[in-house]
Specification:
Blueprint lengths: L37 H25 L7 H4 L1 E3 L14 E3 L3 E12 L2 E4 L2 E3 L5 E4 L9 E10 L4 E9 L6 E2 L1 E2 L7 E2 L5 E5 L6 H7 E6 L4 E6 L3 E6 L8 E7 L4 E3 L2 E3 L2 E8 L3 E6 L4 E6 L2 E9 L10 E4 L2 E9 L10 E10 L6 E5 L17 E4 L9 H7 L6 E5 L19 H5 L6
Parallel strand pairs: 9-18, 11-19, 20-28, 26-27
Antiparallel strand pairs: 1-2, 2-6, 3-4, 3-7, 5-6, 7-8, 10-12, 12-15, 13-16, 14-15, 16-19, 17-18, 20-21, 21-22, 22-27, 23-28, 24-25, 25-26
Length: about 425
């Protein structure tokens, strides 16, 4: 405090507890303050400590907060939306107060998702990948389901991006080498940067087949290069893809970094035909009808695309959020079972447990997807469960009699809708 000090009678300065005042004179001593009885202090501390302990351990129940939030029930590292994660970054999923029931981690390339192998610990509390390193210039998605001691299920979806080295060009593809694929697979590379010298890149990528068949390349813009034969692959065909992109100059100051050989085995020939007018899905395997299933396709305002599509990826359970595909808050379903993606724009074949049974085979009620009868959690013996078990990536799905247009050739693996001459004309080497 600035200014003059007020003096008590006798000239002593007040408000100090030291033995001597700053000027060297005697300091006044304060009268002792009354003390609170120690027992009362201890009782007060006990009440406060007990309240703090209750608040820390069970404040959600005391305050009516209900079950834990998804972020509390399932903890995922790296955090949702993280960017620039290094190759040696930590990746794990934990259930602090329960057990993990299911964890799906996928590395997303431009043409599909590649599952990341991992293992849940014996006590069910933690999931870690089998490989210690992450792929650079990639997007990872994590879908986890946890169950607490009260039997309550929680689902959580997160995503993060790994570090992308500057001026390095990487081609993303799906599925991983060694997979058995359907006869409708189109091998697709989606690059992380625009490719200006498309001819140089196309020379560095070769796709071969045994038995031999003519295979042509087609560019969609400067970021995507697809390969397919004139007609679907013959069952039993072995495909070999050579990526010799390391140090290939793709443009000013930009170079490829991949040097890989990929192998695929083509399985049986399966085509699922959706008749949107009749609300049916007919499965033909090697030319023979093996099942006819009732479905619900896109409604009048949001019809399903017509044309030939290919199964891009399969998920035992996934979240479908209308906000991500332009439908706003019309729907957000965290646990859609038996989901198989057909287009990049969001068309799926999937299980549907929320619609009345009479809808399937009778009405078209979806936002463009094709739904099959299912139960919550995904029943193995439901129509959706049967189709999921009997389908693989690369299987062909044809939609007919829908009021919508034909799916675009670059929406998913829709290149089968392009005439062969037009497809071959899309090569940078012709």
């Amino acid at each position: 405090m600035t200014g003059h000090q007020h003096l008590r009678p006798g000239g002593d300065t007040g408000g100090r507890t030291a033995d001597r005042a700053p000027g060297g004179g005697p300091a006044a001593r304060r009268a002792p303050r009354p003390r609170r009885p120690r027992r009362a202090v201890r009782a007060l501390l006990g009440v406060l400590t007990g309240a703090a302990a209750l608040a820390g351990c069970a404040e959600r129940d005391l305050l009516g907060g209900g079950p834990p939030t998804p972020e509390e029930a399932i903890r995922i590292v790296p955090g949702d939306g993280a960017r620039g994660v290094r190759a040696n970054g930590r990746l794990e999923v934990r259930a602090p107060a329960g057990r993990l029931e299911r964890v799906e981690v996928n590395r997303t390339g431009g043409s599909g998702r590649q599952p990341v192998a991992g293992r849940i610990s014996r006590d069910g509390t933690i999931w870690r990948p089998l490989s210690a390193s992450l792929e650079l210039a990639s997007r990872y998605t994590v879908d986890a389901v946890a169950v607490d001691d009260a039997g309550r299920r929680t689902t959580r979806h997160t995503a993060f991006n790994t570090f992308a080295p500057p001026h390095r060009v990487i081609g993303f593809y799906s599925p991983e080498s060694g997979a058995t694929v359907g006869t409708g697979l189109i091998f697709s590379l989606v690059f992380n940067r625009p490719v200006l010298d498309r001819a140089a890149v196309e020379r560095a990528v070769t796709v071969g087949a045994r038995p031999a068949v003519e295979i042509a390349a087609h560019w969609f813009g400067h970021r995507r290069l697809d390969f397919r034969p004139r007609n679907r692959w013959r069952p039993g065909t072995r495909l070999t893809v050579h990526l010799r992109l390391r140090e290939v100059r793709t443009g000013p100051g930009a170079y490829g970094i991949q040097l890989k050989t990929l192998q695929y085995q083509v399985g049986r020939d399966q085509v699922s035909t959706v008749d949107a007018a009749r609300h049916t899905l007919t499965v033909r395997r090697d030319g023979k009808v093996v099942a006819t299933l009732p479905v619900t396709a896109g409604n009048t305002a949001n019809p399903t695309y017509n044309g030939t599509m290919v199964i891009l990826e399969r998920h035992a359970v996934t979240r479908m959020d209308g906000d991500t595909v332009g439908f706003g808050a019309e729907y957000d379903i965290p646990d859609v079972p038996h989901a198989m993606r057909l287009t990049r724009s969001g068309t799926f074949l999937h299980g549907n447990y929320w619609a009345p049974r009479a809808v399937f085979g009778g009405l078209n009620t979806s936002h463009g997807c094709v739904g099959l009868q299912d139960v919550r959690g995904g029943g193995p013996d439901t129509p959706a469960g049967w189709l999921y078990r009997n389908s693989i990536v690369g299987d062909t799905v044809e939609v007919r009699n829908s009021p919508d247009r034909t799916v675009a050739p670059d929406n998913g693996l829709g290149g089968w809708n392009m005439p062969w001459a037009a497809w071959r004309a899309g090569s940078a080497l012709r």
